[in-house]
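Submission sheet (multi-component)
Chains listed below:
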Amino acid sequence: MSDADDQASLAAYRSGDRDAFIGLVERYHRPVYNAAFTILRRVDDASDVTQTVFLRVIERLDDYDPHYRFFSWLYRIAVNEALDVLRRNGREDPLDDDAEVADLDGCDPEALLQQAQESDRLRGCLMRLPTGDRTVLTLRHFSDLSYDEIAVILEIDEKTVKSRLFEARKRLRRLMIRIEVH
Amino acid sequence: MQADRLTERMHAVLDGTATPEQAEALRIALADDPALASEFATWAAVFDGLSRMPMAHPPEGLVAAIATAVPSVRERPAKLFSDPDQLYPGHAVLGSGKARTSQPFGFQAILGRLRTPAPTRESYAMNTNRKFLAGGVAAIVALGIAAVLVGAPPKSADTLGTVVPAERYRAPQAGAEAVKLGDQAGAPVTSGVVDNAAVTAGSVEAAARADKANAALSADKANAALTADKANAALTADKASAAMTADKASAAMTADKASAAMTADKASAAMTADKASAAMTADKASAAMTADKAAASMRADKANAAARADRANAAQRADKAATN
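Outcome: structure written.
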């Protein structure tokens, strides 16, 4: 799905096609949920934020600048909402162990198991990082946003985005080594 | 290249943001340095792991819940949430130093919000609810009157060409001959009741949305109550923790006092033992002196006795000598 499809869906919704917007929800609810969950680490909070994000899109539809990718704008709202919840809670909650992780594609059960174990280990390390690290890594590695888009979302310059990603990856790797040793 | 610069270059290559010249320079450096190549392979594994990590599944029903709340564009209110601080242009996130605090946080702030719930989702739901209810009531009244006027249910031929959802009551298209203003029993019909089919569909849909808005409001109230319960539980836990800390301090003080008392008792007992020991030593010395005196007395007695015996012997010899 391209950004042109997203823009067309928004235009259709503005013209009265409610199903067009629901199509956007079906298309992006999972990455939005994952962005929120990576920041908040709680299933309930991430679900609430996901719902809020799409309602905010509707509220601010008239403010949306089509020069930006819809997905980038959606992510900006998602990150802001998630960080708002984090600030209101006043503290980071412990990781929600009940989160359901996706099944991996593939046919070989052993390879699947190994891949799942490695992914679980990596996810565990990721969730132990500070909020800022988790946020930039999610935006870059799981949402495939450009440095420029990340800079707009986080309201920092591109050089700072690169610097934060660099430091976050180094901390992630140190954590992975530490967990491997123990 | 310094280590950090090299690592940055590796990240740029793995991230797909390096220029061709930068990528070539790194390739040459890796070819000449096996340790560097190993380091690059480790980073490649990290990047690969991150790209292959699957996304978590959202809970079942999330899409349906969101879809239920999506209004049609005609019904889209100007603002879903009434907090002006939450408008899009005013957002600030990380690193900008302009952290937006549209709502304060912290325990007292949470209590404050619980006492006076934020006029956001609730007010929206209530305002929307009132509009839907008002519209629904007006539509139902109009429907009832139209039903009296034109008869129900309509035959299928009367509804040809009317685009309405199935299973809903479909009043026939209102025309000038069907709607008689003011000449029937019951309340007069206003000229606003024209498109009965659209009003019917809209009223049922509005009533359904009103129900959903009510359900959302109830859920929000339940969430607010749950948040209040959590805050109270946290406060109770904090009080209990403070009480335990006070008890521990008190117990520590008591233990210290007992320990000091025991130390004093030990010192006292030691002093008593020393005294007894000194007394015993004195007694022994005294007894020794007494024994010495007795021994000396016995020796003196023996010497006297020996002297008397000598004198007696000397006297006998003198007597013998005199006799002879």
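Remark: Chain B is about 70% helix and 0% strand.
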